[in-house]
């Protein structure tokens, strides 16, 4: 039974169109203890194709966690969130909304759409690292994620 609790690789889908934020997230996750694979898509349409394993994403893994920027081209983060949470096969995937917006209505709206967590992007690199580390610690260290079924 000893193999039961061995750490598994965590698949994270980052939906983010800002190359700087993608780079920061990649760096931040690299420095953390949990083994993870980061997949990046740049807009909401691509995010849904990845999650639905359509086209070029036919072999995409089901992510353990989605980090979702709200301000995206083609299909915004709110629409993506709504679609994920209203799709029975996808709605159990935890979604962490990452955004620059501090507006109360955006925060409430994200939670109304069943976001699991809402984080306002900090400006500094140190803060950003800390936030990503906390997300990872919380979701990967404390919360028990559903076992992946394909």
From TrEMBL:
Start and end residues of each Response regulatory domain: 11-136
One Pfam family this sequence matches: Response_reg
CDD domains xref list: REC_Rcp-like
Assigned keywords, A-Z: Phosphoprotein
Keyword Nucleotidyltransferase: no
4-aspartylphosphate found at: 69
Record's protein name: Response regulator
Classification lineage: Bacteria, Pseudomonadati, Thermodesulfobacteriota, Desulfovibrionia, Desulfovibrionales
